[in-house]
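#struct-queue
[09:14] JT: dropping the first one here, sequence first, then the structure tokens:
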Amino acid sequence: MNLQGKVAIVTGASAGIGRAYALALAGEGATVVAAARRLGGGEGESRDANTLASLVKTSETLPGRVCAHACDMEVEADIVRLVDQTVATFGHIDVLVNNAALLWLFDTLNIAVEDWDRVMRTNVRGPYIAIRQTAPHMIRHRSGSIINITAGVGSLTPKSNYPRGLAYGVSKAGLNRLSYFMAAELKPHGIAVNCLSPGVVLSESALASRPEAAKAGTHKPCTPEVLGPPLLYLARQTAETLTGQFLHTDEFQKTWP
């Protein structure tokens, strides 16, 4: 699937990994509806703040375009509105990137129910609602690519321990299972559903949860040039070419495609 002129939704797009994905897609000529809780750009905010407003400004020289849309992935009505307005404005949706997530760490035996529920609402329920709302539009066109941004800690046997990451890991395991179910459900309609793990990235959320990461020197830069190519490859896929896979950014052009 050529991305020129295609329409993509990227959630959690104002900063970090989601921002890099939005810019990568716009760089290929796609129209990107970038979603995050706040638009930003208000009085008193720095010009380089991680906001949707600054993302739109940054994208102005790219072949595609980025449109900002305020959306809280914990709120069902917000997600429904995001999808409905995208279709009303652009007529269709070709790519959905479920990136928004809470990377919150807790002592394993001391997780408040409210915190557990917020992680699950954002990291699992939100992507489900986004797929539920988007899939019927893709089904009508018999094409589309859904990419769920996951993490190695969500796999059954993660390669490394993730201290205090129980809630986050369980939420990503749930996202992985959701992806496999949806891949089977939507394959007859030509829609690809895949998981992509960005790996160890020098994003603000990663630094907030693990400040020592900045000194480790093992994190990838959080840029469209570094993170974009694997996502762009998946965005071009159909159910006939690649679906139902859990893939890692670091293995791109090594073990896959």
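[09:21] JT: and here's the second one, same format:
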Amino acid sequence: MSLRAALVLLFFAGSLIGCDQSPAPGEGVSATLHQADTAGFERASAVRPFQFPADHGPHPDFRDEWWYITGNLEGPEARRFGFQITFFRHGLRRGKRPGPSNWAGQDAWMAHFALTDVTGQHYASFQRISREGVGLAGARAEPFKVWLDDWSIEGSSDGGFPWHFRAQQDGVALDLQLNPGKPPVLQGDHGLSQKSAEPGNASYYYSMTRMAARGHVTLAGASIPVSGLAWLDREWSTSMLAPDQAGWDWFSLQMDDGTDLMYFRMRRKDGTDDPLSSGAMIAVDGSSRHLDREDVNLAALKRWVSPAGYDYPAEWRLSIARFGQTLIVKPVLADQEFRHDARYWEGAVDVLDAATGKLRGRGYVELTGYAPGPVERSGD
């Protein structure tokens, strides 16, 4: 789901691009979303038709969007890795160049890259921020490509699959080809995902829940062949959060029987679940069934405190009565906290049968709002 670090661009866009939209000191994420300039941008307010491959590309009529891929990989001797790559675009005042320089651009960009070495019990994460000018970052639909410096996701020459993903920094590299195993899943109401009660506080949201991944991980100069499964989330919007919302817990689970599960719990500041928490169960054939908050019972079983003192849930019981499933979701490594300008927990997990303890699948979990970011202060 990944609303998170796109919000940080609201803070950095002023220093990178020369605009005047950075928040005043002491303002939190929710305040930043509401005070940012949305004039001229469209809002996600009605169901729209989706068109592929065009919708893999950018949507400049909306202020924010992201391309978000996570996955679990295996190498020789069952060596295991988890990975995350996310590209965020934040639009400035639509229809106006931020300045006369060729280095200026209509958009600010941020990218996050993380690799969990499960076997080695080590987590590495990296962040890049860039202006769009002179091709430093950007996105296009035909042929598909999104990039920031030399990190990129790129379609084949005819604009289709496979996609090729590359990222490297400080001796950590990932080079993968991605092929979809199921058609795109339109989340929410036919792709319109409402995040709070205010009209327009929503995104256009689709997922590709089971992508075959194959390539190489590079660590300490060694290239390791890997294969596994990846999950793509794509969203674009102009506004989402309400003032009473604190963050979200997002789950993407790929089961060994070929089914997939997405669920996001929107958390209010008083600790309760927002009624608009929702998800989807995706069958082997790619058909999906929407899940409302009432369909899912999610309970944290353990806690983990980061080195900086932030308290996160660390294991969950996830029950869906209508499907007769009760699952235990366990991180493969406790410390998968992303510690950059945006601070959140994002990590690879195992999915176990609650009754037998047997492995049922793997996935990824994202936890936001448990730690302050650069635009938050105590009391937000």
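[09:30] RK: nice, looked through the second one.
[09:31] RK: The CA atoms of residues 177 and 284 lie 22 Å apart.
[09:31] JT: good to know. The radius of gyration is 19 Å.
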